């Protein structure tokens, strides 16, 4: 019996590595990786440069996604910075699992589940060469030349204005927000829409602030709900809903506000959390 046991033990030692390599005995590992919140395993996140939300691997978008992933026990496989258009396209094709700071539009809702985590509003930034201070006067100013970031969407009224500017050949497209602000400061464009959480960092330079006027020319325009976007190619509705519920939990327990406070003033952070999430 001892000889037989020794033979069996030796055989098992030789056979086990091969079985593990083939995955035939990997049931515990497979079971451990099963998570209804991230059914395809570790997630890939795409960020884009957007003020306090994301820059150089840091920002409130990074902290929010990491906290959500931690709570849902979904490991993050990769975090990449992408141009806005490319991030949306990769979200659509499932090359990334999650995108951030995304406005829900009918076309985006075809390929992504989008759940808001803050509300904000676009202001109008004007170059010093523009003297108009009302929307009506602004549109009649021959010096007006608007700029926008490729892939950005705004309120319906604001997007309509940009379409008019485009039709009149008075619209230029920037690659990202840094490019937009550089064009505005240089006078290549003379007006742009931007969020306070985005332009605040740029306007801290007193010389730049002297050249730029910030106006709310759409006082009745609705605030915009910016949210986390989960690829429908990677998440079922049930899986995505788990992220949605955790976003709501973070709103209720104050975690979202605490994260925004790390990157924004107290007033700006509270303003973004003023409207309830749904």
Automatic annotation (TrEMBL):
It holds the Pfam family SBP_bac_3. InterPro entries: Solute-binding_3/MltF_N. Coiled coil: none annotated. Keywords: Signal. Residues 57-264 form the Solute-binding protein family 3/N-terminal domain. Transmembrane segments: none annotated. Gene3D superfamilies: Periplasmic binding protein-like II. Residues 1-32 form the signal peptide. The keyword Signal applies. SUPFAM superfamilies: Periplasmic binding protein-like II. This is ABC transporter substrate-binding protein. It comes from Chromobacterium paludis.
């Amino acid at each position: 019996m001892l000889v037989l046991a020794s033979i069996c033990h030796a055989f098992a030692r030789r056979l086990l590595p091969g079985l593990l390599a083939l995955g035939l005995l990997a049931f515990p590992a497979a079971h451990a990786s099963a998570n209804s919140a991230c059914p395809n395993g570790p997630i890939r996140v795409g960020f884009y440069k957007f003020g306090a939300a994301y820059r150089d691997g840091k920002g409130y978008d990074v902290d929010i996604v990491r906290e959500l992933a931690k709570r849902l026990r979904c490991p993050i496989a990769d975090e990449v910075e992408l141009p806005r258009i490319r991030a949306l396209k990769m979200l659509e094709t499932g090359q990334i699992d999650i995108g951030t700071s995304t406005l829900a539009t009918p076309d985006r809702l075809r390929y992504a589940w989008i759940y808001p985590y803050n509300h904000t509003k676009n202001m109008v930034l004007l170059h010093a060469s523009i003297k108009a201070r009302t929307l009506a006067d602004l549109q009649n100013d021959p010096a007006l030349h608007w700029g926008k970031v490729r892939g950005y969407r705004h309120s319906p009224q604001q997007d309509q204005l940009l379409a008019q500017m485009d039709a009149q050949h008075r619209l230029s497209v920037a690659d990202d927000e840094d490019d937009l602000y550089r064009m505005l400061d240089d006078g290549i464009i003379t007006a742009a829409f931007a969020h306070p959480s985005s332009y605040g960092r740029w306007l801290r330079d007193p010389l730049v602030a002297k050249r730029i006027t910030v106006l709310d020319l759409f006082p009745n325009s609705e605030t915009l709900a910016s949210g986390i976007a989960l690829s429908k190619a990677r998440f079922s509705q049930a899986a995505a809903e788990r992220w949605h519920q955790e976003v709501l939990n973070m709103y209720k327990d104050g975690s979202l506000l605490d994260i925004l406070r790390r990157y924004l003033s107290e007033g700006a952070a509270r303003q973004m959390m003023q409207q309830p999430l749904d």
